[in-house]
Amino acid sequence: MDRHLQWGVLGTSTIAKNAVIPAIQQSERGEVLAIASRSKEKAEALANELDIARAYGSYEELIADPDIEAVYIPLPNHMHKEWTIKAAQAGKHVLCEKPAALNADEAAEMIEACQQHGVLFAEAIMYRYHPKHRRVQEIIASGEIGTVRALHGNFTCNTADDKDNVRFKREMGGGSLFDLGVYPISAARMYLGQEPEAVTVHALFSEEHDGVDMMASGLVEFPNSVALTFDCGMWASGRAEMEILGTDGRIELPKVFGWENSDIPPQIIVHTDSVSREERVSVSNSYVLQVETFAAAVLEGEALPFSPQNTIQNMRVIDACLESARTRQRIQLVD
Question: Locate the GFO/IDH/MocA-like oxidoreductase domain: which residues (predicted)?
Answer without folding.
Answer: 133-252
